[in-house]
Amino acid sequence: MNRHDLCIQGMEENLNAVTERIIGAVLTVHRVLGPGLLESAYDACLAFELVDRGFTVERQKPLPLIYREVAIDCSYRLDLVVNREVVVEVKSVEKITHVHHAQMLSYLRLSGCTVGLLINFNVKWLSEEGIKRFVNGFQDR
Predict the structure, then answer these.
(1) What ranges make up the beta strands (E) of 21-140?
(2) Which one of 14, 22, 32, 42 has the lowest number of neighbouring Cβ atoms within 10 Å?
């Protein structure tokens, strides 16, 4: 294995560790609040939980669309950006759909972030149906 491969492997391991810790915070918020609240409540509580765990968190981060080398403000906002590398999109919906997947893939492409977590707090069991992980523009799990 060469240096480049080791560097990439190290970055992947770091991102995996970060997303595992974020998911731990998500599970804590869901366990305390349960399903049925507004997205804004989960967003605020998750941001609090992540900061409390030592993460850097940006809430409602503006995301410009670059069109023909011009930044166009289309009012896109990333719910949470953790440690400047993981996009966390918070939902409280009956079911995650392909539109939500497409939204996350677009956010990753436009932001340049490598990993995204799509979280639906409006489910009974988060671990089974409420967490979708995306890596490099592809749904991971």
Answers:
(1) 57-67, 70-82, 86-91, 115-120, 131-135, 138-139
(2) 32
